[in-house]
Fold this sequence. Notes:
Blueprint lengths: L1 E5 L3 H12 L1 H8 L4 E7 L2 E4 L6 H9 L10 E2 L4 H7 L4 E4 L9 H12 L3 E4 L2 H17 L4 E2 L10 H11 L2 E7 L2 H12 L4 H10 L8 H4 L2 H13 L10 E3 L7 H9 L2 E10 L2 E10 L10 E8 L4 E7 L3 H19 L4 H4 L1
Parallel strand pairs: 1-2, 1-5, 5-6, 6-7, 9-11
Antiparallel strand pairs: 2-3, 3-4, 8-10, 8-12, 10-11, 12-13
NADP nicotinamide-adenine-dinucleotide phosphate (NAP) binds next to α1, β2 and α13.
Amino acid sequence: MKILVAGFGVVGRSTVRLLEEQRPMLYRKHGLSPVIVGAIDSKGAAISPAGLDVPTLLAAKEKGSVAEYPAHGVKGEKDVDLIAASEADLFIEATPTTVKTPGPSMERLKAAFRTGKHVVCVNKAPLAVAFPALQELSRHNDCRFRYSGTVGGGTPVLSLAEEVVSGAEVVAVRAILNGTTNFILTKMDKEAWTFDQALAEAQKLGYAEADPSADVDGIDTATKIVILANGVLGRPCVIGDVKIEGIRGVKKERVDAAKKNNQTVKLIARIGAAGLSVKPEEVAADSPLNVGGSLNCLALELKTGGEIFLVGRGAGGPETATAIMRDLLDIWHAGHGDTETQRH
Ligand SMILES: NC(=O)c1ccc[n+]([C@@H]2O[C@H](COP(=O)([O-])OP(=O)(O)OC[C@H]3O[C@@H](n4cnc5c(N)ncnc54)[C@H](OP(=O)(O)O)[C@@H]3O)[C@@H](O)[C@H]2O)c1
């Protein structure tokens, strides 16, 4: 399988490292021989239809850019042209998320689908703003489209949820999908910190960005609930359909009052009859939704059978690379007509 990857940061590099480490197992268990035919970062690309040597590619990036790859480095060409011209079977989109400017990542995905490439995407922004259109484009071009690294990192939240949904009717969803805000709210609850103290600690520990708005204003959670609604529940929507309230306004007094009532405040994403929302809500202290620190939790309310809870770790470079590998193998096996049973 020939692979082209855009974005060679934490996730892109973890992914090619993992593919290289797992090469013997991938061939032995799955008959898969991955070949990295291209890598793109913000300064250029390394392209070789015969395949790039992974240690040389990583060493080139250490020097500043994949474009430093000897004899195969490319500077100044537009990434959409490189994607369209590539002979890759599969394109991995791992550039940064910006919901306000999803244009460049949308163009990359469109270029990949229009030239018949399967896609694994871990960039949430294009999915949040145009999931239905991208799904349509992938179907139209007979390409497979997987994105399991966008929600829950290494925890297979989307595939486990798909499994549940295939055998039951889900009437409502509640979820905690952002580790940074959950860390902050947990500190406010357990250590009686203010929002500002907890945010400063999250930034010190590297959980929160210097500009934490995507997390604390609920945007990241909203992008993930849009992906869940579209990808798992078959409910076409975009981020503009979500009512969003972040956690900046959560005061210590509210957390203390919740505590007195055996409750805690969590940033809850909801899908239900009333639509999609993200807002701070009081949750019973003994609810399985009361996960601590940077954990994620998904609660699926079934028409018959009550509520099912999935709990696991969220983001991380190696975890997200594992999700990409899972998607890649799904695409590989689907291309060979394998059934779920044959795979296990
Ligand atoms: N890290 C996680 O735990 C995690 C988990 C789930 C999903 N994700 C998603 O995965 C994606 C990548 O995350 P990351 O942590 O790997 O980010 P990162 O470390 O900041 O790396 C981003 C990469 O994208 C490249 N890039 C930026 N703009 C580009 C452009 N216009 N064209 C081509 N390449 C461009 C950067 O180039 P330079 O190297 O030249 O700067 C860099 O190589 C994001 O969408 C993120 O939301 C991340």
